[in-house]
Every structure is written in C-alpha cells, then in structure tokens.
Amino acid sequence: MPTAPEDDERELDESRPNEPSEPPTALELIQRAQLELDGIRHRCTALAAFQAELTRCSRGEPFTIMNDLLWTTMIDARDMLLVHFSQWIVSATEPGGLFKRLRQVPMSSFYVRTKPDRHAWKAGKAWVWNGSEADVAGFKKESAARAHARRRQLFEEVFPDAAKQGRRPNHKDWDTLEQEFWHALESIVHDRNDNRAHPRYGWAPKSGTAKMLDLGDIEAHAAWADKFLNRLRVLVDSSSWGGLTPESEPKSLAADLVDILLFGGRRRMDLLSGLAEDAAAAEGLYAWQYRERAYERLWTERRSNALPFNHPDQLRPTEKDDESEDSES
Predict the structure, then answer these.
(1) Is the pTM for the entire model greater than 0.85?
(2) Of 184, 218, 237, which closes a domain?
(3) I want to staple 263 with a disulfide (CB 3.0 to 4.6 A). Which of 112, 203, 237, 268 is the partner?
(4) Burial, 221: exposed, middle or buried (Cβ in 10 Å; 0-12, 13-18, 19+)?
C-alpha cells in the first residue's frame, strides 16, 4: 500500500541522527577534523607500503604488469586519496567548515595567559605513589607549570599578534591562521583540480600532466595538517593528541598485492622460479622465506637485461635448454 507523503517525511526525519542540542565545542570540532584526517593518513600509509614493497621486489627497475586490473585499481586508489584529501582541505575553509565554526566558539577557549592560575594545579592528576602530601603537591605544581609553559609557547606561535598585545584571538588572527593553512596545503588542491580530475583522453585541450605529487609529498602534507590541528587541540584541551599514528598495514597484504601484480599470483611464481611452496614448507621454510628465495632465484637466473626481470620470456625454455635436455636423455 502506498505510503502517504507525510509518512515518508516522518520516516526520513526519524532516520536522521539527532542534532546536538548545543553547538559543538572547540575541542569537539578539532577532534572530528582529526579523525577525518586520520582516515586519510591510514589510506596513505597502506599505499606507501605497497609502493615500497613493489620498489624492493623490482629493485627499482622497470617491470611487466601481469595484472592490469590491480594496477589500475592501485592507481585509482592513489588518485582518490588525493581527491578526498583535497576535499577535506577545501571543506575546512568553506562557509560552515572548520575555521568558520571555530570562530563562533568563545575565544577564551584559545587564550593562554602569561602566567598560570595559582590554583590550576589542584585540578591535575598526580602520578606519584607512596609519596607525602608535600611531594604530591610539588609534583602537581611542577607538572601544571610545564603544561602551561608549553601551551603559552603554542599560543605565541599560533596567534603571535594576540600574544604580543595580551588579548584573545580576533577575526584578523583567524584570517591569518586560515591563510597559513591554505598556503601550506593548496598544492594538494591544485594537483586534484589540474591533474587527477582531468585524465587525458583523445585530443582534449585540457588534461592532466605528469607534474603530480608523489605519495611522499602527500604524506608530508597530511603530517603537517595533523600537527596544525594538534597545536589547536593542545590550546583548548591542555592535552596532546599526538595524532593517531597511522597504522602500518600488514606486510603480508602489500606482499600479496605485489605478487599478483608482478606474476598473477604465488602459484605462478612457483612455476616461473622452479620452486614449489609445498617443497619449501617441507624444508621448514616460512612463507616469507620461500617468497624471498623465489624472488632471488628469479633475479639470479634472469636471461636478458634488456627485458624486465619478470617478463615471461625471461623464464621460458630456450633452444639451448631444449638441446641440453635432449643430450641428457
């Protein structure tokens, strides 16, 4: 039975997440931006692991692509990583984005006085066991003083004019900070707009160029953005995010992808190298040891330096091999 329009609207409203009753705090805004950025950095780490393993196995030399679909998928993943990173940067500077929202929170959240509050240390935690009350108080005062000094230093770095004039940050200070953010990361947006979003097809007048940022450049920009957000977080929360250090992808994942790209799979490596995984296991070798031996044999028995090491002709029997086999028989 068709649903009435008003029922559709009610169902859609109920499916939406509840909006917070109060506007987000500065800390909540920064935390969300950091979590979004961490997802981008994790993808970058995974791609870097694949690239490093491919370079290691091919020894930096040209190679034959034995799986076009996988190669295209990895290239697309690299380009989409930059597209998403670019959109994260643009979103932060758009109306309703991170910077516009941070301007709306009380500026006292970012202000750090020259000297700490005399009683601020009483709210801190003391990581002292079996100490006297005087030891605990002394430790807490010292810790509070160090934390305040660090926050004051960051305040002077992030909002230098406000620090010199002894005031809270104003809109001019935020304009300067937003410009610093944009100038540091605009090359990512430029790469996305002028390269990744315009691949070359036919004789189109506008297309991408080879002047693209590599993964190392993208990682460096993402690390800078993480440090930028972390400084703001320390100002408002007195705690260092330290960044969610991107998790390292299991080496086995990068190894499997490289094997598929270069040989179509581990079984084909068995045939080409003359080694069998089952035989290696019988010798007590671990999978990674067998794999290293297979690659080493492929390189040492390379027939022609004019062809990539994994080219099929490198391992096909030659007429000389056939003659030697006939003579042995």
Answers:
(1) no
(2) 237
(3) 268
(4) buried
Q: What is the pLDDT of residue 8?
A: 42
Burial 87-100 (b: 16+ CB within 10 A, else e): ebbbebbeeebbbe
191 and 287 assigned to the same domain:
no
Counted domains in the chain: 3
Measured between alpha carbons, how far is 40 from 29 in angstroms, rounded to an integer?
A: 17
Q: Are residues 102 and 116 both part of a single domain?
A: no
Q: Note the pLDDT tens digit of each residue in 170-183.
A: 999 999 999 999 99
What does the radius of gyration of the chain's CA atoms come to, in whole angstroms? 29
Whether residue 51 is predicted with pLDDT greater than 50 in this model: the reply is yes
